[in-house]
Amino acid sequence: MSRSVGEVLRQDAALLWHPYASLSEPGRVRLVRGASGVRLRLDDGQGGTVEAIDAMASWWCAIHGYRHPVLDRAVRDQVAEFSHVMFGGLTHEPAVALGERLVEITPAPLQHVFFCDSGSVSVEVAIKLALQYQVARGRHGRTRMLTVRGGYHGDTFTPMSVCDPVNGMHSLFTGALTEQVFGPQPPAGFDRPADDPEYLAWADALRAVAAEHRDQVAAIVVEPILQGAGGMYPYSPACLRLLRELADEYGFLLILDEIATGFGRTGTLFASEHAGVDPDILCVGKALTGGYLSLAATLCTTDVARTVSDGPGGALMHGPTFMANPLACAVALASVELLLGQDWSAEVSRISAGLTAGLAPAADLSGVKDVRVLGAVGVVQLGGPVDLPRLTEAALRRGVWIRPFRDLVYTMPPYVCTDEEIALIGSAITEAIAEGN
Predict the structure, then answer these.
(1) Can you give the residue ranges of every domain in the chain?
(2) Does 289 count as an annotated binding residue?
(3) 319 labeled binding residue
(4) Is-contact 149 163, C-beta < 8 A?
(5) What's the CATH code, domain 69-341?
(6) Is the whole-model pTM more than 0.85?
């Protein structure tokens, strides 16, 4: 390094804002010196380094780990040709090839792709599509989204408006955001049957909300099966099937936000497959590029695409500068092919079994409210807010990097973790929680 570690960290604290962090009282950050496989190499503050398994897959995107030779090569090969061109009036093979592949692997009705800069922007685009669709249908009063409490859809303004308005991260903006229509949060539990009394009560309540606002709602927006940053909260596929029924009954579009759940994370390639439900609009991101570059996509049906294209304006009114960036498209295609070229389902099942076994002892700890696993997602929910600095440090001493939030200590590890690495993640989380009790 050209500068000392201390100088870099001092400048970081003085200049740089980190996610959901104070600039006046910044929390501790650790300097990354390298990353390969599933491990981060962090500066230890004493002139050396310490390695830690990245149990977060860099916020759920680095499913193949770091410095994967296939993905490295895809980036190098594209750089040798060109790194970026505008997508207005131009196209390129990486975008076309990736679009073809996404249409092949997503639910069959989805036939058209709009590339976006990030997951949050893909939700913005999906909502724009829904609004333009309803205007083109002559339904000018349909300007609101219907969603359920507990969700999270991104940090830009319109996605913030469909995040949980009370317990979410964006309650400070209440009053400035579009007022959307919120139904109750689905009852917890992936395995909850459709004849369960709590499910039936929820379904009746949601039907009432949809009926009341039938002339105001353009689309339903939800994360299928697993609410991510809103609480790592799984719910029954029966709930998703009801949402599809309500959309069909009242002429709403169904937007599924699979930014966190797509590409195998919950055990199916896309979480909607658990319910056998096809959306009208689908948002994907995060794992799309394997964590190499920021890229997302909004897919839609031909009905949606043609209706918007033939409506007022004659186009979807959105066009990011870095739309369909060739580098991002090239590495995304390589990442998707790398995933589908292996028995990814068996790998996710293996990780699920390992997390189930590794986190099970945490259920017996005082202060633990719940332990749950769905696919390659493991969660320990505490009875109160996490002590972020203490838990992070305790896990790091055991060789695992985690980033707890709210009352949750969780992991979404890379799919390439070995059984031994998954076991270490489970024991590190359990021991870190126990250490504070």
Answers:
(1) 5-11+31-54+343-435, 69-341
(2) no
(3) yes
(4) no
(5) 3.40.640.10
(6) yes
